[in-house]
Amino acid sequence: MEPKELAARYDLIAQWWQIKHQNSSYGIAQLERAIQFTSRRHSALDVGCGSSGRFIDILSKQGFQPEGLDISREMIDLAVQLHPEVTFCVEDICHWIPGKLYSLICAWDSTFHLPLNMQEPVMKKLCNALESDGVILFTCGGGHTNNEISGSFQGQDFEYSTLGVDAFLRIISEHHCTCRHLEYDQYPENHVYIIAQKT
Ligand SMILES: C[S@@+](CC[C@H](N)C(=O)[O-])C[C@H]1O[C@@H](n2cnc3c(N)ncnc32)[C@H](O)[C@@H]1O
Radius of gyration over alpha carbons of the chain, in Å? Predict the structure, then answer.
């Protein structure tokens, strides 16, 4: 799916997303687990932050200076309304160029939308954007081979891709990060979250 088309579909459900997820606990325990591994709490980046700012809230409370990035203009406009003090940007993570290093980067249910051929370059970019000891949390499709699927959500069709767990672990390791936690957190759903730390 073209990035513009993906953004347009998320624009349409941005309001719904904000109402549904503003107080949602989905992914929060996993974020808190990732935070426990951090040794410093400087900048943090929420990739595909959505409109609720729910991860941004936790990151602020835990002493990080969070930033949010999302490809959907509507998601970001709504997030800014709730968090006017936070830096947000409308950006495709595929084209984003890091301007600094981060103590923590999270990409909860966002990079799983990347085209298959962008999974490795984006993961490499995110690992490289971590400061020493920095931590990354991301979700991906499980299994051992790459895969592309599509599915309908809130009346919109979306596409998803994964390299498979082994490839993500290889990429992390090749970019100087160590896996700290890997879990099929919604088993039997094929949903995995990985926490890794820069060595
Ligand atoms: C399923 S929502 C998750 C939102 C948020 N992480 C949460 O858990 O509340 C996926 C989000 O990722 C964003 N996204 C998808 N592909 C992206 C890309 N290439 N660059 C930046 N954001 C992207 C979407 O616009 C959407 O807001």
Answer: 15
CA–centroid distance, 112 to ligand 1, in Å, is 9
How is domain 3-198 classified at the architecture level of CATH?
3-Layer(aba) Sandwich (3.40)
What phi, psi does 122 have (nearest 5°)? -70, -45
Best mutation site among 17, 57, 70 for ligand 1 pocket (most ligand atoms within 8 Å of CB): 70
Instruction: Give per-residue pLDDT as tens, 15-44.
Output: 999 999 988 999 999 999 999 999 999 999
187 burial level (CB within 10 Å; 0-12, 13-18, 19+)? exposed
pLDDT tens-digit series, residues 41-68: 999 999 999 999 999 999 999 999 999 9
Helices and strands of the chain, counted as H and E runs: 6, 9
Q: What is the distance between the alpha carbons of residues 60 and 96, in angstroms, rounded to a whole number? A: 23
Domain ranges (residues) in the chain: 3-198
Over 81-98, what HEC string results? HHCCCCEEEECCCCCCCC
How far CA 185 is from CA of 80, 139, 199, in Å, comes to: 30, 10, 25
pLDDT value, residue 144: 93
Q: Could you tell me the two tokens for 1?
A: 């799916």
Residues with CB under 6 A from ligand 1: 6, 10, 21, 27, 48-50, 52, 54, 69-72, 75, 92-94, 108-110, 113-114
